[in-house]
């Protein structure tokens, strides 16, 4: 998923518009974008809206409130039956701070799946890591459940907690970002970068996206439709990368019959390079869908 567009779950016009902008995925937000007194209304609205035809074939996710809030269980109870109808197969859990948070969500989800006669584990989870504690716990969070499909960085809360200037030095967030990428990779999960809140500054967004890709993220959240083109472009596999991957995979066949090591244009090609080429090919196929 290169781009995931956040859409406030209490805004009918934004929800209805959301599928037309070309993001790879849509995240309906029941957390920070919705005031506590509006949560209930937002859940009902989302239930109605997600049943509409225009969301079929669109990858949808719902961001639910964190497990320390009074809202998350009701979010799960109301949305899970709907999620399983394939309109939205995954939940993004806000402010995950430990493996126990995930284990808790996993248990409640399993119970709801059981009640509705759904296959166990059908709903997947994206864990949003946005506090210093979450960053330190990233590996355990990543391995906490088979349901985890991705770890996602949230910079705003992290910057508030640490005092880091969110729009200061571009490398200032390398530590939490790299920890997330490594923890995600350790369990074969995807890693998605934080949203860029200064949505009128497309140059700043582009720089941050390029940096995030270099650190190993494969996508980024966006909050405004104008950010989608930039993020899709930066996180796309380029023609050159694709050519390289095909060349490597072509050559690896010969290498198998020899030493397991060969060379293309002065670069050693061995097993880790071959698996990188396979991942590039898989991502290129995904982005063409
Ligand atoms: N999803 C769907 N549509 C969106 C959108 C979004 N996130 N953000 C903007 N739009 C639509 C607007 O409705 C408007 O549509 P229209 O031309 O049909 O009226 C168009 O894009 C242009 O919007 P614009 O006027 O530039 O912005 P805005 O002032 O309406 O909205 C924000 C600005 C920041 C409030 C809005 O982008 C937003 O709500 N973003 C998501 C916030 C969120 O979910 N935060 C929590 C996660 S960090
Ligand atoms: Mg947040």
Number of beta-strand segments: 10
CATH class of the largest domain: Alpha Beta
Name given to the CATH architecture of the largest domain: Alpha-Beta Barrel
Structural class assignment: alpha/beta
Q: What is the helix fraction of residues, given as a range?
A: 40-55%
CATH superfamily of the largest domain: Phosphoenolpyruvate-binding domains
- Tell me the count of domains: 2
CATH topology of the largest domain: TIM Barrel
> Percent of residues in beta strands?
15-25%
Ends apart, CA distance between termini: 11 Å
| Gross geometry | globular
Return Rg in Å.
20 Å
How many helical stretches?
A: 12
- Calculate the mean pLDDT score and round it: 92
Strand-and-helix sequence, N→C? EHEHEHEHEHHEHHEHEHHEEH
Ligands (ions, cofactors included): coenzyme A, magnesium ion
What is shown here, in short?
The protein has 289 residues and is an alpha/beta fold.
Descriptive account of the structure:
With 289 residues, the chain is an alpha/beta fold. The protein has two domains: 3-235, Phosphoenolpyruvate-binding domains (TIM Barrel), CATH 3.20.20.60; 239-287, no CATH class. Helix content is 48%, strand content 17%. The strands form two sheets. It has an eight-stranded parallel barrel, surrounded by four helices. A two-stranded antiparallel ribbon has the order 9-10. Helix 3 links the parallel strand 3 and strand 4. The longest helix is centred in the last third of the chain and has 19 residues, at 239-257. The model has no long low-confidence stretch (mean pLDDT 92). Coenzyme A binds next to strand 1 and helix 1.
């Amino acid at each position: 998923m290169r781009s995931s567009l956040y859409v406030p779950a209490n805004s009918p016009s934004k929800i209805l518009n959301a599928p037309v902008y070309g993001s790879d995925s849509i995240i309906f937000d029941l957390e920070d974008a919705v005031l506590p007194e509006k949560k209930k209304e937002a859940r009902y609205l989302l239930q109605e809206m997600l049943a509409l035809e225009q969301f079929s074939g669109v990858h949808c996710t719902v961001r639910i409130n964190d497990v320390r809030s009074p809202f998350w269980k009701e979010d799960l109870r109301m949305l899970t039956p709907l999620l399983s109808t394939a309109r939205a197969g995954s939940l993004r859990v806000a402010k995950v701070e430990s493996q126990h948070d995930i284990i808790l969500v996993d248990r409640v989800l399993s119970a709801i799946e059981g009640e509705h006669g759904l296959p166990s584990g059908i709903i997947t989870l994206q864990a949003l890591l946005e506090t210093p504690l979450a960053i330190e716990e990233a590996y355990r969070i990543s391995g906490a459940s088979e349901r985890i499909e991705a770890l996602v960085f949230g910079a705003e809360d992290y910057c508030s907690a640490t005092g880091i200037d969110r729009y200061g030095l571009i490398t200032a967030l390398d530590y939490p970002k790299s920890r997330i990428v490594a923890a995600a990779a350790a369990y074969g999960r995807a890693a998605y970068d934080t949203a860029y809140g200064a949505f009128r500054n497309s140059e700043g967004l582009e720089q941050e996206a390029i940096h995030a890709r270099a650190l190993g993220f494969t996508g980024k959240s966006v909050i405004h439709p104008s950010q989608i083109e930039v993020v899709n472009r930066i996180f796309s596999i380029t023609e050159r990368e694709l050519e390289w991957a095909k060349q490597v995979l072509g050559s690896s066949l010969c290498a198998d019959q020899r030493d397991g090591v060969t060379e293309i244009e002065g670069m050693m090609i061995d097993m880790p390079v071959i698996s990188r080429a396979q991942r590039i090919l898989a991502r290129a196929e995904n982005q063409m869908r």
